[in-house]
Amino acid sequence: MPTPNQHPNFILLVGEDAGRALHCYGDSDANTPNLDQFASEGCRYDNAFSTAPVCSPSRSTLVTGRYAWSVGTHHHRSNLLKPPRMFTHELRDAGYHVNWANKQDFNFTPEEDFADQQSEWIEDLEKGTLPDAPFFLYHNFTVTHESTMWSAEATSLGGQNRERVAKEHLLAPNQRVDPDSVHVPAYLPDTPEVRQNIARFYEAQSIADAEIGRVLNALDASPYKENTIVIYLTDHGRGLLREKRWCYDAGLHLSLLVRAPGITTPGTVNNELVSWVDVAPTILSLAGVPIPGNYQGQVFLGSEKASPRKHVFAGRDRLDEAFDYCRSVRDKDFHYIRNGFPELPYAQRMWYLEIMETTREARRLAESNSLAGCDALFMQPSKPEEELYDVEVDPDMVHNLAEDPSFVSVKNDLRKALDQNLQAWGDLGLLPERDLIDQGIIDDALTAMHAKVEKLPKAQRIGVEETVVEMPN
């Protein structure tokens, strides 16, 4: 059995729906002193990406080291019937004590032996009473979930708006956010309601930063500091239109901060491409634990570090009751999206999404033909088959270059890279979901999803009469 001195400890901290909204990434609206300080003590990764713009397939990849569409966890709110092993199983087999404190949401129910404990561990860290074995600790910070932006009138629906209000005492006076001061991306309508949603998010992000600060302060005061690798990352983008749920930069380009004593150099910045499919193999490598042969990512840190990636890949499939199929690939300069069903609009109705004031504002303005320019993109009746964006020139990804003859070779290269990746690992997203159910791969979530479908008011319908739940013929 390994002793604490033989292998490093790990703490994995995950910000929910938090995107890349940290001051250390240049976000002037973010007030995140604890994570900024943490970044200065380790390495900030500037090109880190999720493999999905929504929680369950993103987390599935994170814990299995495999793309969601290759194993059957790609449909949000489905359930894989034969759970795969997680990287925590490998850690436990090597003698690690694993405490996965809270949120799972992997699109499968893990076997009970994936962790030794599933309980809060922060007080144990503060007291220095963690198990006498190398440990892996996980905590998800929920206060930034998209529901933190809901109005007070939506409190009865649950969500993190109540948590945000209950924890406002954690905010310093300079962390209260004036809605008039926030940046509104080009793809969102600039209205008071939208600004209020964004302001609520940034206050929630500061609350999460304070909670993370508690963990980091406890670790720094403990005997574990010099032998503990801490990783902070986020699962996908903010819960706003064209961010969470969509394969644009705002949905996929995320925070990744790593402090690994003796491995990372304080204050460094890494510009190499990193994917969430790489997290599991990297943790195992740093732990000195063999990496399973079915993993699809690569090691991005430590003695077994692989050659830098040329591309990262992502995908979106059914999310709750709304079906779609999108796959994306990007290199450091360009981002390509393939829309498998261009006849489906972006703005299909989803019950959860309609609670957000930003969504209602976009629908209201579209109904009155008051959207003009980039803020109208999401409300179109159909999508282009392909999208291509210059990520440096156009970070909001509002100027599609896919039909520009000047970028034909770029588009073809990214097409080829995407096809090679999907062929290498397989893409179950090409099969109707009912086929996966009939084959015993996933359980039947479609009945429940069909029951959630409601029509928008007729004047607000875009492209389709009602939400499409299953792959069109």
Tell me the CATH superfamily of the largest domain: Alkaline Phosphatase, subunit A
What average pLDDT do the residues reach? 97
Total of DSSP H or I helical runs spanning 4+ residues: 14
CATH architecture annotation of the largest domain? 3-Layer(aba) Sandwich
Instruction: Kindly provide the name of the CATH class of the largest domain.
Output: Alpha Beta
Net shape: globular
Alpha-beta classification: alpha/beta
Low-confidence stretches: 1-5
Distance between the termini: 55 Å
Strand fraction: 5-15%
The helix content, as a percent range, equals 25-40%
| CATH fold-level assignment of the largest domain | Alkaline Phosphatase, subunit A
**Overall structural domain count:** 2
**Total count of strands:** 12
Radius of gyration (CA) equals 22 Å
Run of helices and strands: EHEHHHEHEHHEHEEEHEEEHHEHHH
Question: What does the largest sheet look like?
Answer: 8 strands, mixed
List the helices and strands and how they pair.
Blueprint: E1 9-15, H1 33-41, E2 43-49, H2 55-64, H3 68-71, H4 87-93, E3 97-100, H5 122-127, E4 135-141, H6 161-166, H7 192-220, E5 228-234, H8 249-252, E6 253-254, E7 256-259, E8 268-275, H9 279-287, E9 312-316, E10 326-330, E11 334-339, H10 351-354, H11 357-367, E12 386-390, H12 408-425, H13 433-438, H14 446-451
Parallel strand pairs: 1-4, 1-5, 2-8, 3-4
Antiparallel strand pairs: 2-6, 2-7, 5-7, 9-10, 10-11, 11-12
